[in-house]
């Protein structure tokens, strides 16, 4: 069986053999884009090439990109741990053409890689092609259809709608159709049972999307019309954890060697076995194995947990993880920080930044866990009381009290409420939150973030934590 590390390397080697320059992942934390807190796709770091603001140094590039999808346009948080293939943090393998090759090569190479290098049986693959959208003035992607016809049986090419098969950066700007590749991981028996019925996307939990190939060929104008771009681009993204699951013949991403090391460590710590089921305990194992990656890699890339912005996203993920081990694995001590060394070692050769800052990351995570565990027990008692006296909707003020006094992020309260078939008065919560903000704005004029940018020049990049104070509040930036 191929290891995950080998699978990643084969992807990069394959595109290097097709004259791509292999580049490092951009940081998962985005520091200079007001529209984005975290990298959520491989293309983020190349945005300026598509917009024509900058010229690519190399027309063909490939990489593996650390991505996080827990806020904004892509928010998969609620799926994570419940299903077996959506993560908070994941690696997106990608290849790009900046005004160079287009559909013919992109499609031929994805087919070659999947079927000849990775040897996925051809009758396990499906592809989707954009069907067009008359209302939006968008044509069907006949070119992609014709390219696929060279490789795959026509009944395995399916048409997809604008939501799944057309990509736009925003209301205006570069856009184009995409073609997606799905793998049917059902057992032969299962396949016989649904006999003949084609399944893609979420129709069956074992038929999963692995690779998206976007063809950026139009420019959407302010009046809604489309112009052909003078230079056409290819932008692809393949989920590394999903690919590994397919190639290692597993039913779940968590059964691959990307996650088994972490899960085994959790088993040892809590003295329980992971049974890969749909029960709360199994979900808790998956949530921990998932969330600790997001926590480690964001901190290693320069974002500390805090009460605002990107820092609060990390704090929310961390507290969610703490509540899972506390409530469902019966473990009442700090746990997450014990997993940092597992990941630091596992990823040393690909993302060495974690190993380089292992002790520091561990310290930050431990402090966060300690702080939340101090109020969690009381908070859980309080929410129990609230739940017992609530019929349908938890009062906004009560949700705010949980937030303010016990440090429960609203999505954690929402999760627990949902488990008890209750909703939250979200508007009431917002109102209480805003009231408090007004009060504190009046009380102080200094707005402090948890980290400090030492150099604020335009060309800075995060190079690591040093000069760490006792409460880990100082982050150092260096000019590059
Ligand atoms: P899905 O429909 O499964 O949510 P998507 O269509 O949102 O995926 P894309 O934006 O097309 O995903 O991203 C390209 C690839 O990245 C996907 O084909 C998938 O393999 C992978 N991917 C996307 N989201 C996640 C995630 N949350 N966790 C793991 N892999 C993901
Ligand atoms: Mg998605
Ligand atoms: Mg999709
Ligand atoms: Mg997709």
From TrEMBL:
GO terms for biological process: alanyl-tRNA aminoacylation. Residues 2-480 form the Alanyl-transfer RNA synthetases family profile domain. Its EC number is 6.1.1.7. It is found in: Cytoplasm. One of its GO terms (cellular component) is cytoplasm. Keywords: Aminoacyl-tRNA synthetase, ATP-binding, Coiled coil, Cytoplasm, Ligase, Metal-binding, Nucleotide-binding, Protein biosynthesis, RNA-binding, tRNA-binding, Zinc. It is an enzyme of class 6 (ligase). It comes from the Bacteria. Binds 1 zinc ion per subunit. GO terms for molecular function: alanine-tRNA ligase activity; aminoacyl-tRNA deacylase activity; ATP binding; tRNA binding; zinc ion binding. It catalyses: tRNA(Ala) + L-alanine + ATP = L-alanyl-tRNA(Ala) + AMP + diphosphate. Catalyzes the attachment of alanine to tRNA(Ala) in a two-step reaction: alanine is first activated by ATP to form Ala-AMP and then transferred to the acceptor end of tRNA(Ala). Also edits incorrectly charged Ser-tRNA(Ala) and Gly-tRNA(Ala) via its editing domain. Consists of three domains; the N-terminal catalytic domain, the editing domain and the C-terminal C-Ala domain. The editing domain removes incorrectly charged amino acids, while the C-Ala domain, along with tRNA(Ala), serves as a bridge to cooperatively bring together the editing and aminoacylation centers thus stimulating deacylation of misacylated tRNAs. Belongs to the class-II aminoacyl-tRNA synthetase family. This is Alanine--tRNA ligase. It comes from Lacibacter cauensis. The gene is alaS.
């Amino acid at each position: 069986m191929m290891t995950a590390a080998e699978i990643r390397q084969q992807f990069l080697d394959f595109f290097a053999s097709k004259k791509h320059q292999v580049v490092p992942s951009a940081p998962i934390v985005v520091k200079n884009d007001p529209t984005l807190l975290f990298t959520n796709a491989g293309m983020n770091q190349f945005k300026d090439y598509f917009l024509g603001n900058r010229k690519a140094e190399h027309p063909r590039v490939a990489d593996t990109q650390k991505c996080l999808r827990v806020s904004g346009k892509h928010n998969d948080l609620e799926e994570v741990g419940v299903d077996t293939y959506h993560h908070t943090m994941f690696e997106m393998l990608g290849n790009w053409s900046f005004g160079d090759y287009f559909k013919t090569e992109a499609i031929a190479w994805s087919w070659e890689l999947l079927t000849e290098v990775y040897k996925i049986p051809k009758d396990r693959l499906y592809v989707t092609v954009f069907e067009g959208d008359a209302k939006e003035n968008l044509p069907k992607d006949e070119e992609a259809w014709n390219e696929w016809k060279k490789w795959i049986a026509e009944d395995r090419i399916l048409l997809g709608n604008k939501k799944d098969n057309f990509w736009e950066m925003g209301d205006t700007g570069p856009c184009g159709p995409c073609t997606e590749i799905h793998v049917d991981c059902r057992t032969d028996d299962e396949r016989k049972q649904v006999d003949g019925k084609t399944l893609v996307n979420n129709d069956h939990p074992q038929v999963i999307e692995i690779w998206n190939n976007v063809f950026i060929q139009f420019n959407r104008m302010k009046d809604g019309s489309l112009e052909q771009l003078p230079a056409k681009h290819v932008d692809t993204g393949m989920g590394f954890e999903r690919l590994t699951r397919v190639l290692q013949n597993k039913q779940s991403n968590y059964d691959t060697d990307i996650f088994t090391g972490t899960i085994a460590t959790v088993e040892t710590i809590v003295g329980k076995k992971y049974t890969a089921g749909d029960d709360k305990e199994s979900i808790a194992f998956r949530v921990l194995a998932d969330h600790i990656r997001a926590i480690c890699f964001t901190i290693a890339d320069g974002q500390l947990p805090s009460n605002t912005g990107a820092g609060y996203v990390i704090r929310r993920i961390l507290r969610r993880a703490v509540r899972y081990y506390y409530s469902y694995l019966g473990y009442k001590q700090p746990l997450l920080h014990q997993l940092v060394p597992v990941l630091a070692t596992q990823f040393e050769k690909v993302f060495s930044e974690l190993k380089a800052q292992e002790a520091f990351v561990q310290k930050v995570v431990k402090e966060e866990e300690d702080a939340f565990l101090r109020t969690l027990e009381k908070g859980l008692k309080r929410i129990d009381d609230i739940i017992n006296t609530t019929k349908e909707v938890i009062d906004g003020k009560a949700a705010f009290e949980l937030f303010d006094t016990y440090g429960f992020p609203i999505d954690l309260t929402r999760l627990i409420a949902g488990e008890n078939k209750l909703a939250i008065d979200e508007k009431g919560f917002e109102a209480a939150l805003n009231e408090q903000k007004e009060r504190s704005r009046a009380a102080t004029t200094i707005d402090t973030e948890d980290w400090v940018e030492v150099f604020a020049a335009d060309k800075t990049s995060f190079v690591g934590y040093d000069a760490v104070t006792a409460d880990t509040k100082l982050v150092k930036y260096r000019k590059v």
